[in-house]
Q: What sequence folds into this?
């Protein structure tokens, strides 16, 4: 089985559910884990990263992802919550009731610190629910790799997934954290081949999770990187499905 653990779905011409399902099928991917997209126009990502542009629509469209997971048995969902909101606990509880299986954080869109009160509350509650917390990290003191690791250390009962193999081409701080923290994982989307290869050599395959970052990248292209890695069948199975199945408690 192959599970894409990270795709963004949105009601757009470039990132909609129908296009994603077709790409999954063409790539031979069996299931996908979706989060809300289009808070940032991924076609302008460099402008956001460098601060030249600000998000136009930072409100996550969780309803679009909810519709996708209810209409497609092969799509699971993570709810995205702005930690600046006053009702974050209630939003997470509602998400669990609607069938979401994890929490997606977006520091680039919502510009928060991992040490904020809203994040602390969400991280604690995710531990109670068995929800993994997925986030990318950014070049910002409050939302850096260091701060995400500190969050994972503070809430050992909660599992944390850092997107895109951490920050930059080869985030060694993230690798070391995955090596030492049982609740810390790396997701591969847009990560470079060599870094993924060397990371698995160093820490093994049990803490690395395949994702595509659709629609910014094509699922088949991201999958090909994993298929080309010099892994054993068991290691490849862990990366492509077993690790995310374990975190989402999928049978």
A:
């Amino acid at each position: 089985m192959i599970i894409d653990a990270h795709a963004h779905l949105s009601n757009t011409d470039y990132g909609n559910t129908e296009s994603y399902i077709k790409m999954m099928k063409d790539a031979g991917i069996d299931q996908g884990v979706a989060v809300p997209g289009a808070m940032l126009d991924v076609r302008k990502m460099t402008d956001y990263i460098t601060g030249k542009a600000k998000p136009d629509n930072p409100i996550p469209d969780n309803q679009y992802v909810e519709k996708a997971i209810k209409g497609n048995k092969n799509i699971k969902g993570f709810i995205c919550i702005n930690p600046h909101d006053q009702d974050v606990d209630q939003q997470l509880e509602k998400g669990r009731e609607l069938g979401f299986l994890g929490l997606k954080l977006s520091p680039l869109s919502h510009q928060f610190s991992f040490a904020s009160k809203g994040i602390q509350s969400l991280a604690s509650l995710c531990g109670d629910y068995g929800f993994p917390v997925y986030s990318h990290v950014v070049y910002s003191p409050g939302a850096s790799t260091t701060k995400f690791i500190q969050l994972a250390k503070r809430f050992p009962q909660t599992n944390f997934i850092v997107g895109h193999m951490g920050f930059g081409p080869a985030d060694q701080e993230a690798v070391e954290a995955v090596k030492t923290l049982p609740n810390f994982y790396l997701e591969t989307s847009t990560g470079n081949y060599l870094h993924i290869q060397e990371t698995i050599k160093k820490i093994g395959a049990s803490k690395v999770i395949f994702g595509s970052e659709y629609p910014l990248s094509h699922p088949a292209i991201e999958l090909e990187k994993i298929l080309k890695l010099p892994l054993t069948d068991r290691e490849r199975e862990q990366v492509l499905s077993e690790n995310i199945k374990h975190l989402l408690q999928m049978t």
The chain has a mean pLDDT of 95.
